[in-house]
Design goal:
Blueprint lengths: L1 E9 L3 H9 L10 E6 L4 E6 L4 E10 L3 E7 L3 E11 L5 E11 L2 H26 L2
Antiparallel strand pairs: 1-7, 2-3, 3-4, 4-5, 5-6, 6-7
């Protein structure tokens, strides 16, 4: 299993931060997605700009504390966990960890770089959205 984590602090309203991250109806701020299809309260599908689907099942959603889901597409499967922590200085620290298994040799080789790249892009997009 390949594991990658990223931490970032945000100085914004914690409810707004939570809402932006967990509202799958509002995905336009994500530069990597063409759409999100909501199946039900715990299942959704993200489509890349090339319409490549990734399937998600929410396994935990504790407001302002934790957001977790299982991930699967034809190249990988794994888990994602986001932890929200309010710091003494008033900022919110996000700690995102993703653990995946590649389904093919190339994905197994490139998985760590792929995860790091995706995590950095997500945080850049999130910061941009929160500053709007």
């Amino acid at each position: 299993m390949i594991k990658s984590s990223i931490k970032k602090q945000f100085s914004c309203d914690k409810n707004k931060l939570w809402d932006v991250i967990t509202d799958n109806n509002n995905y336009s701020w994500r530069s990597d997605l063409s759409k999100i299809e909501i199946i039900d309260n715990i299942h959704f599908v993200e489509y890349t700009k090339n319409n490549f689907p990734t399937y998600f099942t929410i396994t935990s959603k504790i407001k302002l504390e934790e957001y977790k889901f299982d991930i699967e597409n034809k190249n990988l499967k794994g888990k994602w966990r986001g932890v929200f922590k309010e710091l003494p200085n008033g900022t919110i620290e996000l700690d995102f960890t993703e653990e995946i298994e590649g389904n093919n040799f190339i994905m197994k080789l490139l998985a760590k770089l792929y995860l790091k790249s995706q995590q950095k892009r997500y945080m850049r997009d999130l910061e941009k959205e929160l500053n709007n």
